[in-house]
Amino acid sequence: MQNTQVHSKKISGTSRLGQAAIISSSHLLNDVYTGILSPLLPILINTYSLSKFEAGLLAALISWPSVIQPFFGRLADTTNIQKYIFLFPLMTGTFMSLIGIAPNISMLSLFLLLAGISSACFHAIAPPIAGKVAGKSSGKGLSLWMIGGELGWLVSPIIIIAFVEQFSLKKTPYLIIFAALAAVYLYFRLKKVDEINNHVVVKQSSVKSSLKAILPMLVPIALIGTSRALMKSSTTVYIPTYLTEEGANLWLAGAVYTLIMGAGILGTIVGGIYKDKIGGKPILQVSLLGSALFFLAFLYTNNILQIISIFLNGFFSGMYLPTALSMVQEYSPENRSFANGTYLALLFSISALANLVLGILYDQFSGKTAFTIAGLMTLLGFFFAFFIPKTDPSQTP
Fold first, then answer.
1. What are the distances in angstroms from CA 310 to CA 8, 233, 366, 376?
2. Cα 178 from Cα 182, distance rounded (Å)
3. What's the CA angle centered on 47, arms 45 and 48, to 5 degrees?
4. In sequence order, which residues have a C-beta less than 8 Å from that of residue 14 and are 6 or more positions away?
5. Number of neighbours of residue 252 by Cβ within 10 angstroms
6. What distance lies between CA 379 and its chain's CA centroid?
7. Which of 81, 330, 335 is nearest to 205 (CA)?
8. Is 313 within 8 Å of 300 (Cβ atoms)?
9. In the 3-class helix/strand/coil scheme, how is the chain assigned residue by residue?
10. Residue 234 or residue 145, greater confidence
11. What are the residue ranges spanned by the domains of the chain?
12. 52: left (phi over 0), alpha (psi -120 to 50) or beta
């Protein structure tokens, strides 16, 4: 296969990392809308009399459509659908904004499913561009990409809680206006991204051979993702509900959620920088150990120690995804979108299942017990990291 380096020539006048930052802004827009579900779960649980399992099912509806990501990724490698990136966050924002007027749980589920499909298409095609335009600094490029998403998740609870308390849940469709304005802005900004303007079609081998080529990296990375999925579900889906049950008000629960996301941004920056310097495997292992230990510390401490622990959990957890994405993409440079889409399809599907499993554990035992199991499971990922291949196939003589 031909190793086509379409990012080797910068012609837009915008720096490589500047172009990655533009892609990152689209990630912010998409995830600021997908992030509104978790802060609203306590309200939705009361409104629809949901169990924790059913609440997890709602969150899973956003993740399940990710199974289509490999197909969209393969399409992105062979056609220039990248130029339509600005449309996907708009569609995501539109459907997420409609959840406030859902007349019943069926329509609410439909809106979340449609938002999930749009978000899945977006995540299949955008990260490889961030990795490509950054050149040899793919870790930094994908860190910028992740910072956009983390910023979206950080501000999302603040925006939606303030909006609902100021107006009402029924007024959320007005949020579509902001998604539309941001999409128009993105349309013009994306014209400065070389990889979108000068997409080179890559001649691909069969799906079977492409998948076989990435399996040595994909399997251990997917196992690591599985080991930390319950903990990630705890901190991104269930923690506002857990804290409100522990006596916190919705604002405090949202503030803790925001603290986790803010710490994740710092971890994303550090993870991307040091991945480029020392390699991905040690970064993943530090991420797994740190996030698991401090998550457990959060559960069994109080007051300031609890706040410090959840902050450090978010920091170490944030190091994981940009590092893993960079490693997967670098291992398959000729099929970045397919490799990226396949990995994210597995990751989001595992996350959707983890939401359900954690919901069952939460219902059967308690939030603290379910979260403890999640923290302990994460520690298994440290050992899976030893199976990550040392070199990528493009460097093999």
1. 41, 14, 19, 16
2. 6
3. 70
4. 22, 192, 193, 194
5. 14
6. 21
7. 335
8. no
9. CCCCCCCCCCCCCCCHHHHHHHHHHHHHHHHHHHCCHHHHHHHHHHHHCCCHHHHHHHHHHHHHHHHHHHHHHHHHHHCCHHHHCCHHHHHHHHHHHHHHHCCCHHHHHHHHHHHHHHHHHHHHHHHHHHHHHCCCCHHHHHHHHHHHHHHHHHHHHHHHHHHHHHCCHHHHHHHHHHHHHHHHHHHHHHHHCHHHHCCCCCCCCCHHHHHHHHHHHHHHHHHHHHHCHHHHHHHHHHHHHHHHHCCCCHHHHHHHHHHHHHHHHHHHHHHHHHHHHHCHHHHHHHHHHHHHHHHHHHHCCCHHHHHHHHHHHHHHHHCHHHHHHHHHHHHCHHHHHHHHHHHHHHHHHHHHHHHHHHHHHHHHCCHHHHHHHHHHHHCCHHHHHHHCCCCCHHHCC
10. 234
11. 16-199+207-389
12. alpha
* Phi, psi values for residue 379, rounded to 5°: -60, -25
pLDDT in tens, 135-187: 666 677 778 888 898 899 889 988 999 999 999 999 999 999 999 999 999 99
Model confidence pTM above 0.90: no
The dotted CATH code for 16-199+207-389 is 1.20.1250.20
Show the tokens assigned to 363: 């219902």
How many Cβ atoms are within 10 Å of 306's Cβ, its own excluded? 15
- pLDDT tens digits for 246-274? 888 888 888 888 899 899 999 998 998 88
Q: How far apart are CA 190 and CA 321, in angstroms?
A: 24
Residue owning tokens 């956003």: 62
Is residue 143 a contact partner of residue 24, using CB atoms and an 8 Å limit? no
Tokens standing for 182? 């941001």
